[in-house]
Amino acid sequence: MSALSQGRHQVAESTFSFLHMELVQMALGPNSATPTTSQLQLASRKIEAIGFQVGQRLVERYTKDRPRFTDTLEIIKFICKDFWVEVYRKQIDKLQTNNRGVYMLQDNSHPTLARCSAPTATSATTAKQMAALHIKFPSGLIRGALSGLGVIASVSATIESELPRCQFTIKITAPSAPPPA
Amino acid sequence: MRRVGEAAFSKVEKINSELFSLTYGAIVTQLLKDYEEVDATNTQLEKMGYNIGVRLIDEFLAKAQVGNCGNFGETAEVIAKVGFKMFLGITAEVVGVSEKEFSLQLPENPLAEFVELPEQYGSLAYNNMLCGVLRGALEMVQMRVECSLTKDALWGDEVTEIRVVLKEMMEEEYVDDD
């Protein structure tokens, strides 16, 4: 069997970055040099939806050989560690929770944002808007991965003042049902 | 040439190809939804590839450490053994080389790893982005080419094959800064 069919194959990270840039452009559509608010909203929904699909399928592949998770916290920890390492080659830097279904995941140097230009005085709004679009993909990945593991949640992403730091907030709406006895 | 490709691939940051192929698949699906027909999707995939090619060539020239190509056949070898290796981790076979054209055959293809084409999308050129990447990248090094997907494993062919035809060597234009 080839490395490809065994799922051990690798491609250059830059290849994925190029594809991701085109994904953002595709979502914005043509004539997107100065996108309107509605264009931005539609684009962020599309990007998030694509992230969701990918996250759902990836998590299925990454968890097929491991024992079933026992609770939601274990699932969140899996996303912060194993899942994030598989996808971005690093772990989430900080995990906080209010113990009532809200989890905050902080990534101090998120790879997707590492190549975005920092907002300058003249382009502050656009650069921020673009960064907000780029972060929709990982945010969708998380929601998709959770859904693949039976946890229904909403995920929002915020960009901290200094790129490439960002934070994902997970709000659990329906925790994974306990396995049938 | 093969060794140059392996050296280049060993130097770049790598990711698991599943993330890449699943994302590509989701993009193709979204395009089919947005454009509602196969031909327009094929065209759009090629355009997106072109945009990528135009940017990707910089990284290639910076990291691959290859010299000038003496002829079009050499260009083919560099693309097949260094370009494909460096970005996709695979090598292509060059066939049918002449002064003005060549074909690249891909025995494996990370783009289409989990894909089967449903019947109504039989004519979808799923891998058309590759054609665009080649066109964009070559245009940046003064070669105007036309690329087409002549065979595709997804269409039931044994290999995936891209034909590259040289249309014109473009003149380099120098513009004064001031």
From TrEMBL, chain A:
Record SUPFAM superfamilies: Ligand-binding domain in the NO signalling and Golgi transport
Annotated GO CC locations: cis-Golgi network; trans-Golgi network; TRAPP complex
InterPro entries in UniProt: NO_sig/Golgi_transp_ligand-bd, TRAPP_component, TRAPPC6/Trs33
Any one of the GO BP annotations: endoplasmic reticulum to Golgi vesicle-mediated transport
Organism superkingdom: Eukaryota
Signal peptide per UniProt: none
Family in the record: Belongs to the TRAPP small subunits family. BET3 subfamily.
Protein name per UniProt: Trafficking protein particle complex subunit 6b-like protein
Source taxonomy: Eukaryota, Haptista, Haptophyta, Prymnesiophyceae, Prymnesiales
From TrEMBL, chain B:
UniProt record, GO biological process: Golgi vesicle transport; macroautophagy
Main localisation: endoplasmic reticulum
Entries under Pfam families matching the protein: TRAPP
Annotated keywords: Endoplasmic reticulum, ER-Golgi transport, Golgi apparatus, Transport
Compartmental location: Endoplasmic reticulum; Golgi apparatus, cis-Golgi network
GO CC annotation: endoplasmic reticulum; Golgi apparatus; TRAPP complex
Keyword Transport: yes
Family: Belongs to the TRAPP small subunits family. BET3 subfamily.
Function statement: May play a role in vesicular transport from endoplasmic reticulum to Golgi.
Assembly mode: Homodimer.
PANTHER family per record: TRAFFICKING PROTEIN PARTICLE COMPLEX SUBUNIT 3 (PTHR13048)
Protein name (Swiss-Prot/TrEMBL): Trafficking protein particle complex subunit
Organism annotation: Chrysochromulina tobinii
The organism's taxonomic lineage, starting at the top: Eukaryota, Haptista, Haptophyta, Prymnesiophyceae, Prymnesiales
